[in-house]
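note to self — DONT lose this again. spent like an hour looking for the file last time. sequence + predicted structure for the chain T wanted, 268 res
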Amino acid sequence: MELFRIGFLRFTIIDLFDIIVVYFVFFKLYQIMRGTRAAQMFAGLLLIILASLLVQFLNMEGMSFLINSISAVWVIAFVIIFQPELRRILVYIGQSRIIRMLFKVEENRAINAVAETAAELADRHYGGLIVMQKDFGLKGIIETGVKLQSEISPELIVSIFSPRSPLHDGAVIIGNDLIQAAKCILPLTQNPTIDLSMGTRHRAALGITEESDAIAIVVSEETGKISMAFQGEFVHRNLETESLKKRLTEIYESNRVQVRKNRPDEEA
């Protein structure tokens, strides 16, 4: 469908859609690369591309021949120069909610890793506080700690909560199958009816689950017991590894069922 015409050029809905998609792609690239050295290199690459278009438009045969001669290696050079950024872009795409829904990415890896970590912390009597993010964003909480953006690993989380580690105070935030941050400060519960014998970690676990839909797993430094808080209360105490896996899986499965039930209402 033609929208308008400029001289002999026709502007259609497809052209409009094409421009919007290109704008969206470059905007997302700018967001991912903003504040890095790659942003400067990306700007330089865009200038080279624009220059090549200009010399072709002006019919500068010498410059056109030179640019065409090196264009064959541009793709390889682009991959080599922007390898870290391309990895970040692919991770960003893979972690998007749409992709995760289409391919039904499960939280099993994160659940298994958290359960193994809790068991190891309990055996060593290391105090630990792990928060598993769900639908509610925890950006404000993540910004209070040290950003990691690393793969989930029981060995890494245990080392974080080692008493000699500078990151052992505070909470570890897990979201999008990554360890988002460590040493995060959580809000303490203000519930006057809680057990006064609870320590700071347990109060913080209740506090974050009161203000979000996150799940908090606490390992007591004194007793080595594992507890899980959800929706502002401790739903399970004295958990074993397998029972912790089972409870976490039940919560995530019930969340998926609820999402499926709500979707027709939202569309209506």
